[in-house]
Amino acid sequence: MKTKLITPEGYKKLYDEHEEIWLIQRPEITKIVTWAASLGDRSENADYQYNKRKLREIDRRVRFLRKLLPELKIINYSKEQEGRVFFGAWVEIENDAGEVKKFRIVGPEEIYGNAIGYISIDSPMARALLKKEMGDIVTVKTPNGIKQWHITSIRYSRQWLDK
Fold this sequence. Notes:
Elements: E1 5-6, H1 8-37, H2 46-71, E2 73-74, E3 90-94, E4 100-106, E5 118-120, H3 124-129, E6 137-142, E7 145-155
Parallel strand pairs: 1-2, 4-5
Antiparallel strand pairs: 3-4, 3-7, 6-7
């Protein structure tokens, strides 16, 4: 079962997507479908068929977002989180081979699209990191065996990731 947590940024992105497809894209596609339907034979009308399919995709996404958004719990940053890994943290880890990874722990709905550097709180890595502090060693079970990582940085701002 997916965790129903989300960052404020993630919630805004999903909300904005809903508004965009409901208020802008759907009315445009509806006009095209209406126009294409008025041309007559719909069975061989590519404009009608393509846009009708697109309209169904939009409606499916709108239904999904309308069901999902009220279920999500927005988790805001709290000063008590400093120094430990919690939801929303940007974490840098390093293994003994010198491999470094940087990522943010977010809700499962936030890891898609342009979410480079995000991992779901439901992932084994995130679960292993939760409540740990800088300098701690974390053991994570992976398909390739057990791996150990040292926590080298914990932040609650994206700015450090781009350095």
